[in-house]
Amino acid sequence: MELRALSRLAAPAVAALLALTTGCTGDTVQGRPGASGLRDPYFPRAGNGGYQVDHYALDLDYDPADGQLHGTAVITARAEQALSSFNLDFSGLNVEGVTVQGEGARYNRTGNELTVRPAEDLEKGEVFRTEVDYSGKPKPLADPDGSKEGWITTEDGAVAVGEPLGSMTWFPGNHHPSDKAAYDITITVPRGYEAVSNGELRSRVEGTDGRTVFAWHSPEPMASYLATAAIGRYKVTTGRTPSGVGLYSAVAPGEDAAGGGPLGRLSEMVEWGSGRFGPYPFASAGAIVVPAGTLGYALETQGRPVYPGAPSEELVVHELAHQWFGDSVSPKSWKDMWLNEGFATYAEWLWAEDHGGPTAQEHFEAFRTGDTDVDQDADVDWAAFPPADPPGAQDISADPVYYRGAMVLHRIRQEVGDEKFFALVRGWAEDHRHKNASTADFTAYAEEKTGRDLKKVWDVWLYGRARPA
């Protein structure tokens, strides 16, 4: 991110009461409810315990004329404990029915929690399939820092952005970055509209009913906050990088300059990033440019970042770098956001260094001295708090997470030298490819990979509360 997103099972009342209070007997296990949150340091109710999702199949039907979304989510997951019930994060929309393993399931809504009670307990290790039918007019959420996220309407359509919790406004799921899954997203829209999502476009079918069906496939694991759906009258361009990465970009009317500006260098940037950070981690790259003013930020939605209006060169580099750092290597908790933003900001410095601009050392010194001639953002309060310990949920996208996070990386480079530093960066992306990682994982990995004691860097720059000297 850059700040510069069924019918119920009929049963007698007594049987229903027993099912709510006891596990099944006989050949089935004695299950217990899955937790309704993962106790994230900043969003304790985000995510759910007791299972891990393997795959989401989302079938969406949206008409911009009335703003109604009709959806079916098929969620394939594995039980990590014996489950009598489990929760899905889901906000606002009306649930019309739920099945588990093909049988009607009872459910209830409390706030943003959809509690599902299968007809039979789920055994530990069992792979189970939950289907949720839902509809309504999705409503966006307000982040703790005041930003708007979720399903957001545009002049001629809508766009979904989900950092940190907004994805629950358009599909039910396990909405925490620690639970990554593959996705298939099918979107039906009126003819004349484009529907863009993550991954690769498998098919586009013009129906006889005046509607078009787009089927998108994302085989690589994806955190739910990185999922997107953009609907509008976009101009679509496609291509391929010299190394074979597919390119698919969609630009809103009135933002046409985006295609010939910095986004025109996207292929070059992908190749540059592959040289610096290792092979590009997904089958496709691209962009979604929504009308200026739709959002107050860009977001690194997986494989296809969303930009509010024509982006700058630095912004394209930043969101592209997130494909390695944040999308492929994802945080274990929202406290680890500096691993996303520090790396993406440092990538901006490296791009400038490699293309005739200020070096990373010059950027680093500019922030220490407040020299806005070198970097226009150098006068921000980058030392307000340690990047690995933001004071609250409203701070996970604040300046120290970005800029002091980048400075932490440069301090490592100063300590170990270029050869070991860039081996560390490439190794981190390769060894944690499509996985989750924490700050503790990174600090241990950095010391092991470089063979250096970096405790002073961690104590002063990463965790220190005083402004580093």
TrEMBL record:
InterPro entries: Aminopeptidase_N-like_N, Aminopeptidase_N-like_N_sf, Peptidase_M1, Peptidase_M1_aminopeptidases, Peptidase_M1_dom, Peptidase_M4/M1_CTD_sf
EC number: 3.4.11.2
Major enzyme class: hydrolase
Catalysed reactions, as listed in the record: Release of an N-terminal amino acid, Xaa-|-Yaa- from a peptide, amide or arylamide. Xaa is preferably Ala, but may be most amino acids including Pro (slow action). When a terminal hydrophobic residue is followed by a prolyl residue, the two may be released as an intact Xaa-Pro dipeptide
Annotated ranges, domain Aminopeptidase N-like N-terminal: 54-226
Swiss-Prot/TrEMBL keywords: Hydrolase, Metal-binding, Metalloprotease, Protease, Zinc
Cofactor dependence: Zn(2+)
Peptidase M1 membrane alanine aminopeptidase domain sequence ranges: 313-461
Similarity remark: Belongs to the peptidase M1 family.
Name of the protein described by the UniProt record: Aminopeptidase N
Organism: Streptomyces virginiae
